[in-house]
Amino acid sequence: MKQISKSAGMGTAILQKELIVRMRRFRSLIVQLIFAAILGGAMWMYSLSATIGGATSPEDHAQTLVAIYFAVQLAALFLIIPALGAVSITTERLGRTWDLLIGTDLSPGEIVRGKLLGILSVTFYFMLLPAPLLAMTTLFGGVSIGSILFEYFIHMLLALLLGSCAILSSAASKGTARAILQVYPLAALGLMFTMGFLSRFVYSEGLLILDYLVMDPPPWEFWLVAIPLYLFALIGTLVGSTFFLSGVESAREIPVRILFLVTFLTAICLYLYAEIPNVSATGFNSLTSSGHGQGLIVALAFLPLVLLRLAGSEPRVPLRVAQIYGEGKLATRIGYFLLPGGLRNLILSILLYSIPFAMVLLLYSIELETLSQVSENFDLENYQSRQETFEVSLFTMYLWGMSVLALGWFFAQIGFGGIVSSVLALGIHVTFAMFVTTMMAYTSGLTGFVFLSPPLLVIGLDFSPTSMMMLTEANLFSSISLLVCVLVGIALSRAKGIPVLRVRRPGMDDLYLELPEKAS
Amino acid sequence: MSLVSTPIIQVRDLTMRFAKKEAVSAISFDVPRGVIHGFIGPNGAGKTTTIRILASLLVPTSGGAWIDGANVVTEPEEVRRRLGYMPDYVGVYEGLSVQEYLDFFALAHRLAPARRRASVADVIELTDLGNLLETEVHVLSKGMRQRLCLAQTLLHEPDLLILDEPASGLDPRARIEFRGLLTELRRLGKTVFLSSHILSELSSICDSVSIIEKGVLLADGSIEEIQMRLRGATVAYEVTLLEESTEVESILREIPQVGSVLLEGRKLRFDWDGEDALIHQVWGALAARKIAFTGVRREEDDLESLFMSLTSGEVQ
Ligand SMILES: Nc1ncnc2c1ncn2[C@@H]1O[C@H](COP(=O)(O)OP(=O)(O)O)[C@@H](O)[C@H]1O
Ligand SMILES: [Mg+2]
Questions:
Q1: pTM here?
Q2: How far is CA A240 from CA A98, A109, A244, B38, B169, in A?
Q3: Which pairing describes strands B191-196 and B22-31: parallel, antiparallel, or unpaired?
Q4: Contacts of A334 (CB under 8 A, 6+ apart)
Q5: pLDDT recorded at residue B153
Q6: Nearest CB to B96: which of A21, A319, A510?
Q7: Which of A296, A317, A446, B255 has the fewest CB atoms within 10 Å, i.e. the most exposed one?
Q8: Most confidently modeled range among A359-368, A385-394, B182-191
């Protein structure tokens, strides 16, 4: 029996290696210098402006200085961690060390954890360098040790999540460039939201997060949502990375799909939780009011972009999934629509696409109930006409979204990869939209081609007889292209011998699971 | 059936089809324990593809393969534990020293601390890397890198080593040393499965070979076995004459077992259809006419000619 060491379980082998490599490289020295320079620069600028602004108490200075430090640190996290994470797996692949690594006893999960710990250790090292200085500022008063520690805690949580997102992007990409391109827009968005909030309400007031929370405590429901959401995102990205690294024929697509489904449901529950108390026909938030309703419809128009990733994914069922399904486990029967491959790719994406529409309809029905309570001077006629616009727009968008998804699915059946299929389907619709916009500019009004781009039509809907006729054309166009894509796609799959609905891998039976008695 | 007698590699009707071409077509072979087995074929023959399937890094289209009884498709973890795989291109981590590199892989193989140190020391001794321990791996020469990679594949003490073109790109000296290393491994009871497109690299150390071309297995077995199978087919002799002679051709044609004869200056080449025991007729006939010769080479004797007679030699 081999002696087995458990110590590698948490990815310590990888962590050890990462630390040696990172700390030894000249690059890390440069990063340290840049980090120090940014911080120093910010502090210097502050001291200049403070001198100009006139005297304040030492406590105020200390408070503001610490707040500025943390604001800079937060921004640095958003800049540095995505880069470190995005290259983490792709460099192993490109340097051809991945085959060696996967040949060891390390599981993909351990590799992911080790990489994450490696990134975090380096980040924490930078973060903790100025800690003694920060502790000294507490001597001036105005800043408590507790606030500083809590601030560190929050930043570390953020670093953890950012790092695991970046690794997910790296695990899902072949090249480093793509991994970085995928993760930076996300990081930029995160930075905008976090910094937008913190710099407006917290840091600019010279406060730290703990001070802010103490001053203005959020309701307990906030924690009830925030903590599970954080854990869910963290675990989801880690599990996702692991499954991306588990080989081409693995069941990695299943957790990705579950992640999609749960994210959708969570987001929608949160939205409903926030919206339901506010819906009423008379209120500002009335769904049929043009501002709110159109905003919603525009948001729904962007949904297919996200879901194309599912619709356009590989039509063949991964071997491992087919094997698991073949074992007849009940869970695989219940979660049938979550299994990748065939027409299920389209069905699941349409299912997910339908959920937000169902949500809007639910809100709408609640709103309609409030009609019985409206006062006498409520302009019912005006409301009813807007109601019609809203319903018609919603229906048109739903049909259009499905046809976009079907187009992406169709390209996947031809044999294009997931990303290419998505880009092609999107490209076609963007081209349509540009074409229609150009034509409208020429004819200064609606053109006969507007049916090609239903979202444009919906946004400019004015209920004239012509535009209603065009709406019918547009819906007809969406339905026909939906139908054609599905039917031709199915025919293509059939021709290639790829099952459309069955969870079977073509040629699966050609693989020997048992050693045959004699070679044929 | 005892475990010891099962072949360490079993391949059955293994096929790998890529989008446009079939890289490996229904090949079947076994590799017994404790031998050095050569996997030979020209570039593009499907060697790397087969090897990656054996190392559980690629899932085949059909058929199956077993490493020490573990199925490469359904039990990849078992397979990886039982073999050491060295890819055709050896990537190394920048910024690690040889010692750190080996320590890292020992840890990654989950060896217990005591065994880890012993294992690392053992492979360092075996591969003779002792005086390079502090050198950073990315500055090592190709030959040393190859050794380091071999050392790494040996850390978890697998019974089987699968090496993809280990000798390519090595200078002659490094190649000879590498061969010595492989025979040493065989002495330690390991099975070595290695691929090559150059035959001379392997002929002296392989116990058995599989010859593959365009994804099809052309021959498989010990070198003698393959020769036996080719009996009946023509054997060629190349004779170097002491001085040019025009009558040699007619002398040889009088012997019925001699096939085509080719004379180019002092080089005489002829095909022999008969039994080996009767070849003395030729030498006798030459001696009777006082035609002296300085060298004789039986072409089938080496792996090279075996290979040439089997393959069309096309590179795909
Ligand atoms: N991933 C791949 N996709 C498509 N074709 C491939 C792939 N890998 C190898 N091939 C093709 O399969 C054939 C065999 O390749 P390979 O196994 O690398 O040959 P060898 O190692 O014997 O030189 C080659 O013609 C090669 O072009
Ligand atoms: Mg090769």
A1: 0.66
A2: 18, 10, 6, 40, 39
A3: unpaired
A4: none
A5: 93
A6: A21
A7: B255
A8: B182-191
Hey, are the CB atoms on A102 and B80 less than 8 Å from each other?
Answer: yes
User: Does A291 lie in the same domain as A182?
Assistant: no
How far apart are the CA of A45 and the centre of ligand 1, in A? 60
Nearest to A471 by CA among A490, A454, A496, A484: A454
> Is B111 in Cβ contact with A95 (below 8 Å)?
no
Which helix (H) or strand (E) covers residue B162, if one does? strand B160-163
Do A150 and A247 belong to one domain? Answer: no
Domain assignment of residue A226, yes or no: no
For ligand 1, atom 2, the nearest C-alpha belongs to B18
Tell me whether residue A227 is in a domain. no
% of chain B beyond a pLDDT of 70: 89
Residues A476 and A406 in one domain: yes
Read off the amino acid at residue B273.
D
For residue B120, which phi and psi values (nearest 5 degrees)? -60, -45
Q: Is B42 in the pocket of ligand 1 (CB under 6 A)?
A: no
Pocket lining: B154 vs ligand 1, CB cutoff 6 Å = no
> CATH classification of B229-303, choosing from 3.50.50.60, 3.30.70.100, 3.20.20.70, 3.30.470.20?
3.30.70.100
d(CA A96, ligand 2 centre) in Å: 14
Residue type, A302: F
Phi, psi (deg, nearest 5) at residue A198: -65, -40
- The set of long-range contacts for B73-80, using a CB threshold of 8 Å and a minimum separation of 24, is B73/A249, B73/A319, B73/A511, B73/A513, B74/A323, B74/A513, B76/A247, B79/B54, B79/B55, B80/A102, B80/A103, B80/A104, B80/A105, B80/B55, B80/B56
Residue B301: Cβ within 10 Å count? 13
Residue whose CA is at the smallest distance from ligand 1 atom 11: B23
One domain for residues A211 and A242: no
B3-221: CATH architecture: 3-Layer(aba) Sandwich (3.40)
Domain with CATH 3.30.70.100 in chain B: 229-303
Question: pLDDT tens digit string along A167-221?
Answer: 988 988 888 888 888 888 888 888 888 888 888 888 888 788 888 888 888 887 7
Q: Best mutation site among B17, B18, B316 for ligand 1, i.e. most ligand atoms within 8 A of its Cβ? A: B18
Question: How many angstroms separate the CA atoms of A277 and A58, rounded?
Answer: 46
Q: Quickly list H helices, A327-379.
A: 330-334, 344-369
E-assigned strands of A140-234? none
Whether A224 is in a domain gets the answer no
Examine the pLDDT at A12 and tell me if it is beyond 60: yes
Domain final position from A183, A215, A247: A215
* Structural domain range at position A451: 238-371+398-512
Are residues A158 and A100 part of one domain? yes
Do B132 and B144 meet the contact criterion of CB atoms below 8 Å apart?
A: yes
Q: What is the C-alpha separation between A65 and A450, in angstroms, rounded?
A: 57
Residue A225 domain flag: no
All CATH 3.40.50.300 domain ranges of chain B, comma separated, are: 3-221
Domain count, chain A: 2
Tokens of B260: 């085509």
Together in a domain, A338 and A481: yes
Contact criterion met (CB below 8 Å) for A305 and A426: yes
The stretches in chain B having pLDDT less than 70 are 1-4, 199-201, 203, 227-234, 299-316
